[in-house]
Structures are given as structure tokens and as C-alpha cells.
């Protein structure tokens, strides 16, 4: 299985990088993880204009990646699910793409194009933390699907 995590984020070194790598390595027994961070000049300029302009820029950045897989958008107003429901997003799929929007969220039209819209929590968290939580839930989801004791 292939998993892509596509996010609006500046490519920079982070204290979370070793954790991302550890979690991706744990997931590698089930799937290949590709982490794609996008932050174009268009996004930078849109941030100086308005939140709506920023959301439009995120949609344009994500457009080439949409489709061809089961697409899941992470959004604060998405459905809050538990780990067992999350595991069903991964079950029997060849490819899953997860989209993490920028600081201003995602356009409603983009969310409608997604196969699923979920929230990782009712709490607000930074994109870096959201990616850690997402990676851990991906591993937990595969553990549930394979009856591995990790999830208990």
C-alpha cells in the first residue's frame, strides 16, 4: 500500500523529524509513506492577502495530488473518529492520500472533493503535531487490521 501525506508546510528541519522517521519506519512493514510538504510563492503571497485567498492557494497547491487514491482531508470540522474507524479508512485500499491544510484551513469545495473529511481531535494543534498524530494513527490502524497487539 502507498500512503501520501500532503501538507501545506515549509520544508524545514524540525525537532519532530526523528519521530516522523521512526513512525514511518514502523509503518513500513504495512505501507510505503511519502511525506510531501508544499509551500509555494503563491501560498506565501496569499497569506498576505486574506484567509480566503490562502485557502484558494492551498487548493491550487493540492490540485495535482487530488484523485487517483482514496483522499482524506484533515479538517477541524471533520468527523471525529476513533482508531477503529480510522483503521477502516486504510482497509483494502491500494493507496491513501491525507491532506493537511495550511493555517487557514481548507476550502469547502476542496473538502467536497475528498472521499473522507476527518478531525484528529477537538483540540487545536500545530501542523507538526498533527502529522505526528496522523502517523501514529496510521500505524495503530494497520496494527488493528493485522491484529497486532500494539493497539491494545
Strand runs, count? 5
Which sheet architecture does the biggest sheet show? 5 strands, parallel
Give the overall shape: globular
Averaging pLDDT over every residue, what do you get? 93
The radius of gyration over CA amounts to: 15 Å
* Helix/strand order: EHEHHEHEHEH
Which residues sit in consecutive blocks of at least 5 with pLDDT less than 50?
Answer: none
Brief digest:
This protein is of the alpha/beta class and 152 residues long. The protein has helices spanning 17-27, 41-47, 51-62, 83-90, 108-113, 127-145; strands at 2-8, 32-38, 70-80, 95-100, 116-119.
Please supply descriptive tags for the structure shown above.
alpha/beta, 23% strand, five-stranded parallel sheet, 152 residues, 41% helix, 5 strands, 6 helices
Describe the structure.
The longest helix is centred in the C-terminal third of the chain and has 19 residues, at 127-145. The protein has a five-stranded parallel β-sheet, with helices on both faces. It is α/β, with parallel strands linked by helices. The model has no long low-confidence stretch (mean pLDDT 93). It is built from six helices and five strands; from the N terminus they run E-H-E-H-H-E-H-E-H-E-H. The chain has helices at 17-27, 41-47, 51-62, 83-90, 108-113, 127-145, and strands at 2-8, 32-38, 70-80, 95-100, 116-119.
Topology (SSEs and partners):
Layout: E1 2-8, H1 17-27, E2 32-38, H2 41-47, H3 51-62, E3 70-80, H4 83-90, E4 95-100, H5 108-113, E5 116-119, H6 127-145
Parallel strand pairs: 1-2, 1-4, 3-4, 3-5
Helix pairs in contact: 1-6, 2-3, 4-6
